[in-house]
Amino acid sequence: MTLAALSDEKLSIIREGGVWVPSPLALDSSKEMMEDWQRLLTLYYIRSGARTVIPGAHTGEFAGGDLELYGRWLGLVAETVERYGGPEVFLMAAVGGAQARAQAEMAARSGYDIVMVAPTAFPEGEDGGVIETFEDIGSVIPAFGFELQRAIPGSREYSLALWESIFGVACGAKGASFDTYRSQVMLEAAARSSRREKLVMATGNDDRIVSDLGGLFPFRVGEREVVMRYHAGLCGHFATDTRAAVGWVSGVTGARDGGRWTLPIGQRELAHLVNMCNGALFDALGNFENSVWGVKCRLTQLGLLPAPHCFHESGRPGQAEAIRSAYGVHPLLGDEQYLAEHLEEMKREVGLTGSAQRG
User: Fold this and answer.
1) In the 8-state DSSP scheme, what is residue 210?
2) Nearest-CA neighbor of 343 among 65, 108, 43?
3) DSSP character for 97?
4) How far apart are the C-alpha atoms of 19 and 22, rounded to whole Å?
5) Is-contact 254 262, C-beta < 8 A?
6) CA distance linking residue 281 with residue 50, whole number of Å
7) Are 55 and 93 in contact (CB under 8 A)?
8) Nearest 5°: phi and psi at 29?
9) Is it true that domain 8-258 has CATH number 3.20.20.70?
10) Which tens digits make up the pLDDT trace of 112-159?
């Protein structure tokens, strides 16, 4: 089977890493997509410095399993990126479940560069079915791995051997196990891969995103030491206050790669504050049951959505106040000032005026 491949130029762009945003869906009270607000969100992410805006992920509730909605979402993001994005922005989509192959085909037709394959796409049982799925999707469009935390339905635990097989066909992976040891297994498999120099590694471990992005991870491979690092962060935290996130992520990775620390607070304090935001956003103490609502609540507080409507979530009492409080601790965390200066201009650009602003 012939696998779709990234060009060297596109691979180089993707390996530049940075902030990757899993896009929420802008829904009205009838749970229909509001296209103008969806364009506003996408424009905001691009203007904030995100390297990709990803439809189809958990923060968008997987498009509610609606292929027609998924296709409209793909097209809207692609059109907005084409209009406003620079050459450093690439197109990634998330696929999963029984529709994964159909979603991958839609993404390829819409001009996407790569798809992230959620473990919900894999059949239960033997690992061979995982590789067959990667090969099937990879024959249509370059594929990217994705490990979920146990709290999310459809999660699957990957062994070292399975990761090694995945890295024989995939372009890299996002680790979001929320488990240090499982993340180490993924990185070790990448370190041992003969395709290591072509793999792209991303972290979605919201509970330690700062230490992941700031870390160097050595492994013994044969007689040599191989040092791994995450190229990018891809987590729900980046779907709000994105410009602020681009700033602190750049500071963290710049220091990791040999530059001096330029942020106004230390790395440990930053990690603590980011985790406080994550805990409130994702309803961590409520077993993540209102994680999508939390992201949309914060976007609503910032004026980027009219209301935090979701397909299935409605928030937890006190969650909105906890989110506001966490982001208010330090100006490094939030986008209030940036949006005070630029939000109305961006709304005009996407046609959000007057009655069109109601959700």
Assistant:
1) H
2) 43
3) G
4) 10
5) yes
6) 19
7) yes
8) -65, -20
9) yes
10) 999 999 988 888 777 888 999 999 999 999 999 988 766 665 566 789
